Amino acid sequence: MSVNRLLGKKREMSQIFKDDGELIPVTILEVGPCTVAQVKNEETDGYNAVQLGFGDIKLNRVSKPVKGHWKSAGAEPRRTIRESRLTEPTELKPGDVVKVADVFKEGDFIDVIGKTKGRGFQGGIRRHGFNSGPRAHGTKNTREMGSIGSATTMARVQKGTRMPGHMGTNQVTVRNLLVARIDSERNLLYVRGAVPGFNGAEILVRKAKAKRAKKEDRALRKGKGQ
C-alpha cells in the first residue's frame, strides 16, 4: 500500500509504562478508519493521488455535489476529505477503508500536522514575549506597545512588524514523534510527545520525512563534530 498518511483527531494526553517500568508521556490519537473517495492517476488526471475521508457527519449537512462525489465512490459522506499525492499508482479503489494498522506500526517515526489552540486577540507581551514597561507611579505604558516605526524617512509601518493581534490557529508540523503503541481494534495511536490542537482537533498523520537517527548514530556524529 503506497498511502503514507491518514486523517484523524486528537483524543487526549496520557501515559504508559514500558516493561522495565519506564514512564512514557503520550498523546492518544484516533487515526482512521479513512474511506477512499477517489483515486487519481497520470492517465486521466495527470498525477497520482488518493482522496481520503474521515469522521461522521449528518446527511442534512452535506451539499448535493459532495453527496454525488461520495455516491460515485459507493460510500457514505465523511466530515473531512483530504487529497494526498502519490509517487506511484495505488491498488486502492473508491470505497475502500484504510485503517491505522495498514499504514503505521509500533516503533515508527511520524509527523503530525495540526492547528494550534486559538488564543483570540492578544497583546505583544503574550503574543511575542515583549518586556513590560515600568510599573512605577504615573507610568502609562506598562503593557502598551512602544515605537512601531522610524521617523519621516520611512513614514510607515514596515511589513512583518510584531504587533498585537490574533494568536493561535496556526498550522504546525511536529516532526519525528515515536509511535509507542497501536490499538488496531479502536484505531488508536499512542505517540510519544505533544501534538498541537485541542482535544478533538483534526490532524493529519504521515510517516516521517526526515527520520530521526539512532542513538548510536547521534553519539557518533556528536563525536565527529567535536
Question: In brief, what are we looking at here?
Answer:
This protein has 226 residues and is mostly beta strands. The chain has three helices and twelve strands; from the N terminus they run E-E-E-E-H-E-E-E-E-H-E-E-E-E-H. The longest helix has 11 residues, at 215-225.
The CATH H-level homologous superfamily of the largest domain: Translation factors
Question: What is the name of the CATH architecture of the largest domain?
Answer: Beta Barrel
- Percent helix range: 10-25%
Per DSSP E runs of 2 or more residues, the count of β-strands stands at: 12
**And the CATH topology of the largest domain?**
Elongation Factor Tu (Ef-tu), domain 3
Number of helices: 3
Largest sheet: 6 strands, antiparallel, barrel
How far is it from the N-terminal to the C-terminal residue, by CA? 42 Å
3D shape = extended
Kindly give the count of domains.
Answer: 2
Estimate what percentage of residues fall within beta strands: 35-45%
Architecture overview:
With 226 residues, this protein is mainly beta. The protein has two domains: 5-118 and 171-225, Beta Barrel (Elongation Factor Tu (Ef-tu), domain 3); 119-167, no CATH class. It has helices spanning 64-73, 124-128, 215-225; strands at 5-17, 23-31, 34-40, 49-54, 80-85, 97-98, 109-115, 120-122, 165-167, 171-183, 188-192, 202-207. Strands 1-2-11-10-7-12 form a six-stranded antiparallel barrel. Strand 10 (171-183) and strand 11 form a beta hairpin.
